[in-house]
Amino acid sequence: MYESMMGLKREQGNMHGTPLWNARALANNVVNTVFQIHLPTSCHCMFFLSVTSPLLRTPQSAQLNSTADNLVSNRETSPCSHELKCTWPPASYRERKQVFLLPELLYLLRKVFIFFQAKGLIISYQAEDHHLDTGMHEQRAGWGNSGLLIQTSLVYIVSSGQSGLTSETLSQEKKKKKEILKSHIAHWWSPDGTRLAYATINDSRVPLMELPTYTGSVYPTVKPYHYPKAGSENPSISLHVIGLSGPTHDLEMIPPDDPRMREYYITMVKWATSTKVAVTWLNRAQNVSILTLCDATTGVCTKKHEDESEAWLHRQNEEPVFSKDGRKFFFVRAIPQGGRGKFYHITVSSSQPNSSNDNIQSITSGDWDVTKILSYDEKRNKIYFLSTEDLPRRRQLYSANTVDDFNRQCLSCDLVENCTYFSASFSHNMDFFLLKCEDLPMQILKPATFTDTTHYPLLLVVDGTPGSQSVSERFEVTWETVLVSSHGAVVVKCDGRGSGFQGTKLLHEVRRRLGFLEEKDQMEAVRTMLKEQYIDKTRVAVFGKDYGGYLSTYILPAKGENQGQTFTCGSALSPITDFKLYASAFSERYLGLHGLDNRAYEMTKLAHRVSALEDQQFLIIHATADEKIHFQHTAELITQLIKGKANYSLQIYPDESHYFHSMALKQHLYRSIINFFVECFRIQDKLPAATAKEDEEED
């Protein structure tokens, strides 16, 4: 699958379709596709224009132009939810299987954009013929102040001419972008809209993974795609800037000249000014990062800050906040705060006009974390941020002076009764902010009819991904709440070693021994709960998903204080079972580079744990087309379960992806999990001993 980059630039109030590169159509056999364009208008109405077409080409532009004119002319009288559809091309053209090209579609969009002055655009694609379905059902367009970027799955941009380059502009494999950038977006507009920065990801040397499809045809098919696992070849990545105001000129930003950066990731990109772009480069071992400020006119990058860790570097995707002139910026870095290790605090870097050295100052300090910098008010010399200063499980809004004493003030503390977990956003002029309460004032979920004299089953829910937080005072409704409210269970979550927002010492303790310390901490939480008289010690379960699925499987065989089994049952959804089989960026971050020292990879395999699984009920759930955690993980685990004569059940979702996009499948999934634990927690009616003996005599 390929993607395209096309552009629209504004000239004297008009928009002209201008391709940034020459494009060629690859899907010549696609005759009928659907482009659906969502246009927010200045009156806050949403208009929809659906054009059925493979990719447009003259001489049929007249009908499309009249369609755009019709949409424009009806704007004043049309209701806010107006929808106009145009079937394209006509049946006669579909019968001839004529192929169309993209520029005419851009011309159609141009006419609509001129009138509505649209600020955003989403294009969704779907092939009507099932056998032509490429699997890419979504396209995106990103807006700058004066330009448009369209990504499609049918057009490939040829700019380098390099053979085997599968991802020239924006990688169609969202997994790679999201694992590193924590976002599907890999293009960034300059503030004035005259330049566009974009990531180039080349995965031509990355080994292929094959996802099987079992349904829809007599013979199963496979979909190959590049997937970097621990120790294998990684995609190469580079950052480019292209100017849109004059002649097209593509310029690559020069990475740091550092031997530790022989292989690297790009984890953050943000424009500081219209000619300066900030970039964070992270080495493959993920223990060295360099923050640079790159000149978009020359490609030269100047180092502004460097971080190094003996374990791994956390929170490398966070964007700095810049002053308007770009000479001052605020960022979060880990600073030593005593015996608990480092905590993340705000640092300001200021550059002087006639000096090559930057002035670095820490604005906040203490054994708590700044979780997010929200905004910088230059007029009032204040920085606004969220932090855990109150408690690690809370998020309060603070302000701090950026000059003199750096005095800070809590703006949300005691503002709303029983609310301690906030998020916030600020208006453009910094005069107003929107404060949202996401509070849930409890740590253990109990039934509404809870009494101390009743015995309740206990479910331990684990996530535990290093740096994550399970215990917070944020309100959310999940399937666990259904188990609590409708089936009388008690649910507990625990943040132990490896969790976030409690200092780097606690975070880094799990390095190279994933599962080992988390089990100890989670079991300590369970033992504490089992001391409560209202917990039924014979009905205890554990559940986890993804990395939590790894932990739930790791913890399930754990013994209690009397060396008896603690858990009656457990379930794992899409579990990681062998980190050698998982994404290189994740596995190498916590276990080191595979191939240099593989002991950590061998020690963390679940194969070493499942031999102790005998009597407990164990439900494994996995989608066969899981593109993030391959079904291979579960297949390897089941092989070991069979060898160990374990009691397990497997529930699969044929040809479904990791994210369960279908609502019907999600409902079935959650219903299955709930039913499993309801059955596990069911109190079996035991026959009195005398009656049982009488029955035996009668037989």
UniProtKB/TrEMBL annotation:
<keyword id="KW-1015">Disulfide bond</keyword>
<keyword id="KW-0325">Glycoprotein</keyword>
<keyword id="KW-1133">Transmembrane helix</keyword>
<protein>
    <recommendedName>
        <fullName>A-type potassium channel modulatory protein DPP6</fullName>
    </recommendedName>
</protein>
<dbReference type="InterPro" id="IPR050278">
    <property type="entry name" value="Serine_Prot_S9B/DPPIV"/>
</dbReference>
<feature type="domain" description="Dipeptidylpeptidase IV N-terminal">
    <location>
        <begin position="178"/>
        <end position="439"/>
    </location>
</feature>
<dbReference type="GO" id="GO:0008076">
    <property type="term" value="C:voltage-gated potassium channel complex"/>
</dbReference>
<dbReference type="GO" id="GO:0015459">
    <property type="term" value="F:potassium channel regulator activity"/>
</dbReference>
<dbReference type="InterPro" id="IPR001375">
    <property type="entry name" value="Peptidase_S9_cat"/>
</dbReference>
<keyword id="KW-0472">Membrane</keyword>
<keyword id="KW-0812">Transmembrane</keyword>
<dbReference type="Pfam" id="PF00326">
    <property type="entry name" value="Peptidase_S9"/>
</dbReference>
<comment type="similarity">
    <text>Belongs to the peptidase S9B family.</text>
</comment>
<keyword id="KW-1003">Cell membrane</keyword>
<comment type="subunit">
    <text>Homodimer (in vitro). Interacts with KCND2. Identified in a complex with KCND2 and KCNIP2. Forms an octameric complex composed of four DPP6 subunits bound to the KCND2 tetramer. Interacts with KCND3; this interaction modulates the channel gating kinetics namely channel activation and inactivation kinetics and rate of recovery from inactivation.</text>
</comment>
<dbReference type="GO" id="GO:0006508">
    <property type="term" value="P:proteolysis"/>
</dbReference>
<dbReference type="GO" id="GO:0008236">
    <property type="term" value="F:serine-type peptidase activity"/>
</dbReference>
<dbReference type="InterPro" id="IPR002469">
    <property type="entry name" value="Peptidase_S9B_N"/>
</dbReference>
<dbReference type="InterPro" id="IPR029058">
    <property type="entry name" value="AB_hydrolase_fold"/>
</dbReference>
<dbReference type="Pfam" id="PF00930">
    <property type="entry name" value="DPPIV_N"/>
</dbReference>
<keyword id="KW-0735">Signal-anchor</keyword>
<feature type="domain" description="Peptidase S9 prolyl oligopeptidase catalytic">
    <location>
        <begin position="477"/>
        <end position="682"/>
    </location>
</feature>
<dbReference type="GO" id="GO:1901379">
    <property type="term" value="P:regulation of potassium ion transmembrane transport"/>
</dbReference>
